[in-house]
Records
---
Amino acid sequence: MKWNKFVLVFSLLILSFLACSSDDDGGNPSGDPIIGEWQLDRVIFEGTELSLQPCEDLETFIFEAEGGFFNERYSTAPHIPDQDCELQNTSQGAWIIDDNGIYFINLQGDFVELPVSINEEAGELTLNETDPATGMTQQRIFVLQSTNE
């Protein structure tokens, strides 16, 4: 009889561990702050905030815990009746972070540095871009919409 109680208690204990997942706390499973869906909030060009064009604020980046990402950009759709915005382009690839905290993305087979900074408290991700030909800078600031759970 004691053996049956032990097996029952042990089985319940195992089942309770199996029922829990690593992301039950509502955070992202890998703990990396880049994980989640980010939506474009504002653009700063050479230190001046620009007004977003119609539909531009629909741009999203989705970074997955498994190392994949998706990006969607939208534009106005004047030639499509009853539709204000249309999907302009999509891209996808893989992302990694090195030991120094620098993010890299893989598009078309090459890993390139993704100049990104994350302000976890404000829920903001900033892509820092520099035009290699002119040296002009632009920051595309995204706000966290949701974490991938």
---
Amino acid sequence: MSSLVRRFNGRKAVLDGISFSVLEGEFVSIFGKSGCGKTTLLNIIGGLDRPNSGTVLVNNRNLVELSEDELAKFRLRNIGFVFQDFNLLLDMTVRENIALPLAFGGKNDDRHVADLLKAFDIEDIAGEAANKISGGEAQRAAVARAMVNRPAIILADEPTGNLDDENTDRVIETLMVAKRDFGATIILATHDREIANRSSSTLFLSEGRAILQHR
């Protein structure tokens, strides 16, 4: 990211000239209080939003230069998203939820889906409807779904925001499996300093500005 600016309706910039870089395979947390622009920054990295100015270079592609169709294809191939409420389709099975991004791309990879079910220890609930599984199981299924297209980057937006300590630990451990076993780069937005301290680098976001701190 270079000289990134994002403002809404002419108001003060939410992101005001931010520049930083993330290394392949790194686990970076974006830390700041609610409303500081964490979600906006994640959406720009993931091609869901566009900056008013600046460069967004992801996997050697400048997302600012891509059309909407090109952005959609780029997201499908390169980015996995994990949302705070996980966004599983409740009337579909765990296996179907995980495989859904493959279907969007016109692909079928039952072996890879099976590998993910095993890696995240949810093989035994693969045939269960998403509305029948526990919160911890839904967390793991959501990360598995984010990994199914073998993305280079996983973007996680406050995935532990509404969880107790035990389930928070499970989410972080699951993301670490994705990093360790699948080589994914993790970028996680959080307002929890303890979560931020578990990452290899933290981008402190405040008043539209950012400071990247490595450990």
---
Amino acid sequence: MADNWKLKGDFVLSCNCTVFCPCVISLGQHEPTEGRCQGWAGIRIDEGHHEDTDLTGVKAGLLLDIPGPLARGNWTAALYVDDKASIYAVKALTRIFSGKAGGSTGLLKILVGSFLGVRTEPIVYEIKDGAHIFQIPKIIEGVVKPIKGREPGQNVVVSNSGYWVGPDVTIARAETSRVRAFGRNWNFAGRSAELVRLDWGS
């Protein structure tokens, strides 16, 4: 039985793919452009709960290191939760992002082979002039901008996909994307990124 939970908000992901991440269309069956997937994700919860715990306003981040096509599993992952969140919110998000809460993120219980743990850190997630700015000081620094489409004021969007994060994915590019954590020192500036409006739950 899945827990009773719901998250709505914004999701930004920056990875090492040199062009738009093939996982969105292949649903994790196609190899990442560099053979393995390295990346980070940021989450800003505009509205949410886990059982009786209110998650509204909480921010979180993920570190992801995956040795091949995402669907094969053996992911290495770490979770960061805003240090302003209550201990109950941290526990709730740990259940959700470890897959133990079931529902939209339930597959993570199978796909993640090595979970590096949960850390509470100050997290910034802001949207300014369309740019998604995500920061965990000394750990992740990211500025992601959507790619503009042909029609003025419109971004390039993949719609109605079966992607687990969400069906409508705005194609983006990382202007700044640096990670220093768990022995990893990554720089994905100029590489693939994506933006999704989250609507997850059980």
